[in-house]
Automatic annotation (TrEMBL):
One of its GO terms (biological process) is amino acid transport. The chain crosses the membrane at residues 41-62, 68-91, 126-147, 159-180, 186-206, 264-287, 307-332, 352-372, 378-399, 411-435. The lineage of its organism: Eukaryota, Viridiplantae, Streptophyta, Embryophyta, Tracheophyta. PANTHER family: OS05G0424000 PROTEIN-RELATED. GO terms for cellular component: membrane. This is Amino acid transporter. It is found in: Membrane. Keywords: Amino-acid transport, Membrane, Transmembrane, Transmembrane helix, Transport. It comes from Handroanthus impetiginosus. Residues 39-431 form the Amino acid transporter transmembrane domain.
Amino acid sequence: MESRGGNDVVVEPISGAKVHSDDHLAVQVPDTAHQISHDSWFQVGFVLTTGINSAYVLGYSAAVMVPLGWIGGVVGLILATMVSLYANLLVAKLHEYGGKRHIRYRDLAGFIYGEKAYFLTWGLQYVNLFMINVGYIILAGSALKAMYILYRDDHVMKLPYFIAIAGLACGLFAIAIPHLSALRVWLAFSTFFSLVYIVVGFALALKDGIEAPSRDYSIPGTKISKIFTTIGAVANLVFSFNTGMLPEIQATVRPPVVHNMIKALYFQFTVGVLPLYAITFIGYWAYGSDTSSYLLNNVNGPIWLKTFANISAFLQTIIALHIFASPMYEYLDTKYGIKGSALAPRNLSFRILVRGGYLAITTFVSALLPFLGDFMSLTGAISTFPLTFILANHMYLVAKRHRLTTLQKNWHWLNVLFFGCLSVAALVAALRLIIVDSSNYNVFADL
């Protein structure tokens, strides 16, 4: 079925359609049980902005600025913003490549390369999203623990307990919200919650910074450790701005699909990045190299205000996790034909069992290894770099090879090689960080 909007021709996915590579390899591409082509570019822009301004921003002062310092951190954030926008635009422009819509990242890769790339991309993406969700549950548990400590610093309730509570809350939300487009009003709540912890964190850090003596902004560690932490921080930079599921988000936007997605991306990388910049820079300015991996643990101020900020971080994390878990939910709902009313007994029981099971596993891993910064680095290394930069540039190179000049081809190849080397280096650095932290802490650590 075709529909026209602007200059774009939208070809809806047909059940049983084939994806072909140049070698005529084929993989089966199912229709989707979820809603597509329904949301305005503005709503999609808020989905993207919700992802980058989640409670993860409360850790960027420590995860990015402390290892890189002022010059490296500021320049790195700006460069990461520009490079991420460019890479995401490449993927967005390929959404209707070949005269049909590719509503999943793996569908697009399979159409361009064939069966092996289809499954490789699928694997990379789900590793990426699973680890992002692990981080979200760690964040939600950390927010609950930070709030608890404000009233009772007796260590009776430990971080793994709060992570379990966070996992239960995320499970209840996942059961109630059937698909990504159904978030709607929850995106407004998400924006409100984000503004609360960012504004409160900014204001209290500004107050602390004005009242505090001079801070130490030197990069901590030995020469060897600085090399690894710097590489890890670069992985955190790309993690900050990229979802790893752009085609899935683009699938929800109304026609003209490419034009509207480009507007959503420009919204994300202009207005959307300002809160991230603000909280990241003020946190490092106020506390220097002593900045906590969860900024609200650093700030001083009225208990009620810090409680409000921590509750907001907890609630926003639940909404943000749902965005990054939605490709998993879409796959399972499509595979087992879960359509229609969200309250239908079969649909409800399926979500309780399957989504609840997925989040139970995610929660267990979060409690087992609650090293948030390490997960950010590892996720950036093994999946964000390949999906967002290496694959995006190479797919565009292959898809547009007859229209690109030699200079443009060389530019894309340079990006592929550069980010490939960076991905390998970041993987080594992230594994080293995890090994070091695992030797310093027991499993189910109370950090």
